[in-house]
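Q: Sequence in, structure out?
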Amino acid sequence: MDRMGAEPELLTISAVAERLRLIRMVSQQRRYKGRATPELPSRPEVIGLADQVISALYPRHFGPAGLTLAETDAYVLQSLAQVQTRLTRQAWLELCLAEPQPEPRAARIAERFISSLVRLRDLHDTDIAAAFAGDPSAKSLDEVVFCFPGVAAVLRHRLAHELCKLGVPMIARILAEHAHSTTGIDINPGAEIGPAFFIDHGTGVVIGETAVIGRNVRLYQHVTLGAKRFEDDGEGGLVKGQPRHPVVEDDVVIYAGATILGRITIGKGSVIGGGVWLTRSLAPGSVVTQALPEQRQA
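A: Exactly. Output:
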């Protein structure tokens, strides 16, 4: 029953389909302002091409089993060529949502992304080394690559961040949200993250769009680098793209459950204890902890 107590109208399947069609038409007309409804990028295709990139970056770990050295080289070359073709198509679909005839730009995005992979592989190797050095439970670098969710999330972030910079934020966000759903770690593609970044355990970590993280930073589970407030444009809409998340300088450690909000700076070498709520900047070398619990007799 509805809120007035009346039985809702019982619709046939064909009537439901027709009403949904009308809703879609109205929505698409508003969104695309009368032009033909464009095809959207494919979520499964974006996820698949990202997996193919990762297998080309780390073919021993994520490529086909048993590849010889010569076969590995051929596999990487073939995979990169396929990724470039697939990404060109997905970039074209995203660009078509906002601009006509984006073919040259889509091709350039794919070319530049492929070219960036050498730099991204070198950068992510620093993350792997940081994870191995920072976790006493890690027995080998191979275990870190295969098994650590924080390392998996950061690799996918680095790919998504590059795609975001190249001008395909929807594709980047698809990849980021897939990583979020599989690792429990939510990193917006816009966040800037320096070398040797390690997220230990990782579940519940949130890093906002305009966060900036320096070199050799370590986070633990349930850390939030979030916004304190959202600016509005005076007409009820949110102002987008403004810096609103923390800047974390080099060599900072942030322990489990800490919440750091707003465009504040955490100075180099600082340590933030577990469960701390922080909305003010810190000088380099600061240590912030919660008050010690007090034990009393019952």
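The chain has two domains: 40-185, 204-290.
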